[in-house]
Design a protein that fits this description.
This protein is an alpha/beta fold. It has three domains: 26-240, Class I glutamine amidotransferase (GATase) domain (Rossmann fold, 3-Layer(aba) Sandwich), CATH 3.40.50.880; 248-436, Rossmann fold (3-Layer(aba) Sandwich); 450-550, GMP Synthetase, Chain A, domain 3. The chain has helices at 63-72, 87-93, 131-139, 229-240, 248-263, 276-289, 307-318, 329-336, 342-364, 376-380, 419-428, 433-436, 456-475, 528-541, and strands spanning 53-57, 77-81, 97-100, 126-129, 143-146, 152-160, 176-182, 184-188, 194-199, 202-209, 214-217, 267-272, 293-299, 323-327, 367-371, 409-411, 484-498, 501-514, 522-523, 545-550. The strands form four sheets. The chain has a nine-stranded mixed sheet with strand order 2-1-3-4-11-10-9-6-7, with helices on both faces. The longest helix is centred in the middle third of the chain and has 23 residues, at 342-364.
Length: 563
Amino acid sequence: MGVSDQYRQGSLSRNPKPAHFLPFRDTDAPANLPNRYWGFMAVSMTDSSHDRLLIIDFGSQVTQLIARRLRELNVYCEIHPFNKVDAAFLERFAPKAVILSGGPSSVIDAGSPRPPEALFSLGVPVLGICYGQQVMMQMLGGQVETGHGTAEFGRAYVTPQASLPLLDGWFADGDEQVWMSHGDHVARIAPGFAVYGTSPNAPFAITADPARHFYAVQFHPEVHHTPNGARLYENFVRLAGFTGDWTMGAYREEAIRRIREQVGDAKVICGLSGGVDSSVAAVLIHEAIGDQLTCVFVDHGLLRLNEAEEVVEMFRDHYNMPLIHADERELFLGELDGVSDPETKRKIIGKLFIDVFQKHAAEVGGAKFLAQGTLYPDVIESVSFSGGPSATIKSHHNVGGLPEKMGLKLVEPLRELFKDEVRALGRELGLPDSFIGRHPFPGPGLAIRCPGEITREKLEILRKADAVYIDQIRKHGLYDDIWQAFVAILPVRTVGVMGDGRTYDFACALRAVTSVDGMTADYYPFSHEFLGETATRIINEVEGINRVTYDITSKPPGTIEWE
């Protein structure tokens, strides 16, 4: 394989500026697209006045992180799969520069992915990354080989060989740390190229043909473990002539225009969970179409303590939006009774959400669209590139399109955004910081924080324990430093001693992580004093728990949620 790309990275700044992505309907997908692209292709903005950068995706798990690096630089970019990009597409899209992503294939194999030959005669800068470097070399007259001892996976160090504007700001302190993930290697560079950096197992780690503005690197500059990688992208877009004129304000205006064009005078129902994602989507869509939007808040019995009351008060009373409060606790909990498999839980919840929305769409009368706050991390964990490395980690109830029986089309204005970008959009829309900064809460709710069978007793215990934990975090001034924090109630009972008596109650696990986009995460380093104080409070205040643990697993290898 040319590159494994199994290890997803991404730890970027907290306030990236977005490139432009728009949702499209599942029925718009060409029949020959790989599964990964059904339902969430970036749509070209044909009337855009912004310079555009094209990212051609060959199936890497971290392609979206390239876009995130560019969004931080206020550069308008779009990701498109290799098998959708042909000469005619390039002519229509008219990119100012092109980046070729990594991927799982080997360029040596027959039928391996290729960009169109026309790419290299456009006269625009091209940057190839990992597989992108190898495919450039192979197509332009170089040679790629597979051989023992030349693979590199993980941290490596690149040594400079010559100066290059692409590398301004690099090598100031010696060799640069990079992240490698390749099995194949470049054995001979293409005519016109020269070597500008080497690593122990990659003698052509950085190559370039400056006359034609072609650049190629064997490593992944987009990931966290290439610490100076952002500077490389900054240099590339500067060399390409981008001015960084794409802003969140522009995203907001264009998204509103697109929503109006898509919806027309039709009615829309919005699946409102009360979390940041669905709430920002609701406010954005309401700004676009006003009272054509009706929010449907489904209380599935899997919410946090007092959450239903808070959501209804905020949106019905404060934002004055039409809101249906659907109390469906008995329906959801009844269907989940006795179910322990996490994927089965998610699928049951997803199906019931569809049924509930369908029912209330009929109540609204003539609703033709369903709005959701789907984000990109939901999508990438739910779908896979055919034959590629993007394994389906877990399904998400709001990903994958709608059944035909609903008769509704999707409006998903956030589908290509990461969480921090959604928060930036929320600030642009005027939502208060106290709300924007809320920790993520999953659509399946407490169902996936209750491993094993779900019972009403366990849910009540979990709600109370979670409330104590979050209260502790707020009291210690740590809430805004943490990406997400929650309690999981474990499917085991343990023996304890309380008041000289024996107890046999549940154990729980505390989880708190730091992250930027949810794609990778690390545990928050609480002090032992904090953990001891929190455990004491939970055991003393929550009947049914007699043991507290702290989860210190990073993502990867774990996920943030337990199921």
